[in-house]
Design brief:
alpha/beta, Chitobiase, domain 2, TIM Barrel, Alpha-d-glucuronidase, C-terminal Domain, 8-stranded parallel barrel, 6-stranded mixed sheet, 29 strands, globular, binds alpha-D-glucopyranuronic acid, EC 3.2.1.139, Alpha-glucuronidase
Length: about 850
């Protein structure tokens, strides 16, 4: 049983910028630190060893949490009150004690706090560091339970992928530029890289691929290989092994060979040489990540070689060094839109199933959790059930590419758990994804997980304080996928924001409600995230899913919606699962509602298990989800004074943004399907906004009407923009609402390429002003258009209004941004617009 001491609550601390993440070691007031040992013994260490780091970390943590300085020694001392940290081997030698480690897996550890001497012993040095972090995590949470246990990882591979480009930009990164690269080179100052390795180690991540899967060959120049050596040097004390993504055509584009055919001897030799050079600089390199023959990347298919032959090329080069090839299963071709049976979801199994058994033992096929691409809900990739003689790893995404780009709170562990816990029933036997990727189910030597993280130089790492729960949860689940999402979250909350129960309850509520809310307003019933797949992947743009070769289709028309993926009449995808699962998905009556439109093409009036029709479910879900997002603002505000001002204000800004953008999502999707189906909302809400005033119906001076495309990204299809890019516009109107107090929302568009200014007046008295500067503050992929990505809302609360008052908005354009306005809404308390 865990004992969390009830502690006095610390008065609010100084501003925090997020850099310390969950390793703050904030003071615990009112705790008697006599019980904490008074020295540390770190065994058998050199300064680059994780055991050395463990000693330093313990000293730092205890100083921070208890204000108690304790010394570090490097051999057995006299004191009985000691924290001993080291490997089992070093411990047995130093203490002449043949302490028996049971079958601990590599990186596992033993933690014993039951006696005066705290034992933290690792199966290896890395394990010792993990044990030290575990002990510190308990102390920092005020948990002084006496424990003695072994902990082993569920799987050996627990890596991150960073999609950093050599120029310092990050593909799908929302936390600023790279901490590794700049101007084509490895940065000089690797302080942040070292701090990142420390964060990763604290959640037991043991490898990081540092460059984009869409890899640039110039990573392999001698200067950059030396730079990789420097990154590895700062990773090593934390037990994080460096790995890199490769561009398959490098022998030709960088090496000037005439070919990159994986079976050509000159190509084999070239990769062998490069690999030797890399291991010279990075003797403990983890391995390579390869994206081949996908989305324009070169690969072995060019030479009629199989993907397995391509993977084994690298496997051979790495084998002498113990390195691993992570070979991505994200391979698909562009599709013919008029082919009813074409399906991108089929691609991975089509490409890889027949190669089962042909990959070398140090190849791991890295499989995205779902068959398409990190959507808000996908069924488990059936490829996990089709590779019985191949090592596999799951690929998750911490960076919220399709899930709000860190501008919407979405706690992802519950989504990941739906996949990890899913039982694929291979051979009618229990076959959960977590037991497949660990290697246990099919008796494979390797396996595990990789997550695309994409931290940047922003002090919050990911661009948002609350998004860091996802990185924390990823590490925890990679180690132990059977953990509970909420329990992981609560550890993270205590470590990040302290022990106040109201903080714990509030952030737990917001986070646990966040994925369902996002799913509800961005695309439910398995239709995927209804975003713009050809542009930024951020805001709503449902029609953009179809009519292109990418195959993220919805097949929506005026009567029906959904992809028919049945064997009997559709793309056959359901048949890629083992029989029990295939049968469940083949039949709409046994398909869960939340995946109905993934597997079936049905009428909008089709009845769900819930009893609702598909279209009414859409309308209701979009109202419910966006309604939940509104509540995150007052929930967060209830923590004012309990969290330092800096983090409080940063999060409040994002929650207010999310509340506004959730309404943009709700209306865009509802208006789109309302328009397409012609079926009214039984709740009378869709298309009916009694508290709105459209900008285009106001009296305009210097503003003109503008038809927005896609149409559903504007209320009533239209917005207004200034007549020129250099002259001010005003929009005014006389209000007819009853006297009272209102929250006034202004929906406008915030484009990249200009910072317009807006000011709102009531009877010529200013009631608020703001700048269109979100592109500098949010970090999401920006837009140059008036669309679902740039549409946003500013809310001015508690405005007293009388019938007959005159409202005026003055917009000052800047750059290419013509101070665009969509509508104003006056919300009396409790009204839903
Ligand atoms: C997505 C993403 C790309 C990325 C690709 C991949 O399609 O949008 O930016 O390169 O996945 O995983 O390779």
């Amino acid at each position: 049983m865990q004992v969390f001491l009830l502690l006095g609550i610390l008065s609010v601390a100084a501003a925090e910028d997020g850099l310390a993440a969950w390793l703050r070691y904030a003071p615990l007031p009112g705790v008697n630190h006599q019980a904490i040992p008074s020295n540390i013994v770190a065994l058998n260490t050199t300064t680059s060893s994780p055991v050395y780091s463990a000693g330093v970390e313990l000293q730092k943590g205890i100083q921070g949490i208890f204000g108690k300085h304790i010394d570090i020694g490097y051999e057995k001392g006299e004191s009985l009150s000691t924290i001993v940290v080291g490997t089992f081997g070093a411990y047995s030698q130093e203490y002449n004690n043949n302490f028996n480690a049971p079958d601990l897996e590599e990186d596992g550890f033993w933690l014993n706090t039951q006696n005066d001497t705290v034992q933290i012993l690792g199966q290896n040095e890395r394990g010792a560091l993990y044990g030290a972090f575990e002990y510190l995590s308990m102390l920092a949470q005020g948990n002084f339970t006496k424990v003695a246990y072994f902990s082993s990882p569920h799987a050996p591979i627990r890596w991150t992928n960073e999609w950093d480009n050599m120029d310092g930009s990050i593909e799908r990164g929302f936390g600023g530029p790279s901490i590794f690269f700049q101007n084509g080179l490895i940065v000089n100052n690797l302080t942040r890289a070292a701090e990142y390795a420390r964060l990763l180690a604290s959640v037991r991540i043991n490898g990081a691929i540092v460059n984009n899967v869409n890899a640039n060959v110039t990573l392999l120049t001698p200067q950059n290989i030396a730079g990789l050596g420097r990154i590895a040097d700062v990773f090593r004390p934390y037990g994080v092994q460096l790995g890199i993504s490769l561009n398959f055509a490098s022998p030709q584009t960088l090496g000037n060979l005439s070919t990159f055919d994986p079976l050509d001897p000159s190509v084999i030799e070239w990769w062998g040489n490069i690999t030797d050079q890399i291991y010279e600089a990075v003797p403990d390199m983890a391995g390579y990540l390869v994206k081949a023959n996908s989305e324009g990347q070169p690969g072995p298919l060019t030479y009629n070689r199989t993907l397995a032959e391509g993977a084994n090329l690298f496997a051979n080069a790495l084998q002498p060094y113990g390195g691993i090839v992570m070979f991505r299963a994200f391979v698909y071709n562009m599709l013919n839109i008029s082919d009813w049976k074409a399906d991108r979801a089929n691609a991975a199994v089509q490409f890889f199933k027949e190669l089962d058994g042909q990959f070398d033992d140090n190849v791991v096929v890295q499989i995205k959790y779902g068959p398409i691409d990190f959507q808000v809900r996908e069924p488990t990739s059936p490829l996990f059930a089709n590779l019985l003689q191949t090592n596999t790893a799951i690929e998750l995404q911490v960076t919220q590419e399709y899930l709000g780009q860190q501008c919407h709170l979405v706690y992802l562990a519950p989504l990941w758990k739906t996949i990890l816990d899913f039982d694929l029933r291979v051979d009618n036997r229990s076959s959960t994804v977590s037991n497949i990727i660990s290697g246990k189910r099919f008796n494979r030597p390797l396996g595990g997980s990789a997550a695309v993280v994409n931290v940047g130089t922003n002090t919050t790492w990911l661009g948002s304080h609350l998004a860091m729960s996802n990185l924390y949860a990823y590490g925890r689940l990679a180690w132990n996928p059977s953990l509970d999402s909420e329990a992981i979250l609560q550890d993270w909350i205590r470590l990040t924001f302290g022990l106040d129960p109201s903080i714990l309850n509030t952030i737990t509520q917001m986070s646990m409600e966040s994925w369902p809310a996002y799913e509800n307003y961005s695309g439910n019933l398995g239709i995927q995230t209804l975003t713009d797949i050809l542009y930024t992947h951020f805001g709503p743009n449902p029609q953009n899913m179809d009519n292109n070769g990418y195959g993220q289709w919805t097949r929506a028309d005026h009567l029906t919606i959904g992809m028919d993926r049945t064997v009997s009449n559709g793309t056959g995808f359901a048949g890629q699962y083992p029989p029990e699962i295939a049968a469940m998905y083949e039949d709409p009556s046994t398909t869960p509602d939340n995946l109905l439109l993934w597997f079936h093409h049905v009428n909008y009036t089709h009845l769900l298990h819930s009893g609702n029709t598909v279209i009414q479910h859409f309308y209701d879900a979009h109202y419910n989800g966006s309604g939940v997002a509104q509540t995150f603002v007052p929930l967060w505000e209830s923590l004012k004074g309990k969290i330092d001002d800096q983090r409080f204000e940063d999060v409040l800004f994002r929650q207010e943004y999310q509340a506004g953008h959730a309404i943009v999502w709700r209306d865009a999707i509802n208006d789109f399907y309302h328009n397409l189906s012609g079926i009214p909302d039984l709740g009378g809400r869709v298309g009916n906004h009694p508290w709105r005033i459209e900008a285009e119906s106001m009296v305009l001076d210097g503003y003109k009407s503008y038809t927005v495309s896609p149409f559903e990204a504007a209320s009533n299809y239209s917005a207004v923009v200034t007549v020129t890019n250099s002259t001010v516009g005003t929009a005014s109107t006389t209000l007819g609402f009853p006297d009272g107090k209102y929250d006034v929302g202004v929906n406008y568009y915030d484009l990249i390429g200009g910072i317009s200014h807006f000011e709102m007046f009531l009877n010529e008295k200013s009631i608020g002003s703001w700048a269109g500067d979100l592109e500098n503050r949010l970090g999401h992929a920006p837009s140059v258009y008036l669309d679902g990505h740039s549409a946003t809302r500013k809310t001015i609360r508690g405005v007293n209004v009388k019938k007959g008052d005159v409202l005026k908005i003055v917009g000052t354009p800047n750059g290419i941004e013509p101070a665009p306005l969509d509508y104003v809404v006056f919300l009396p308390e409790g009204a839903i617009d």
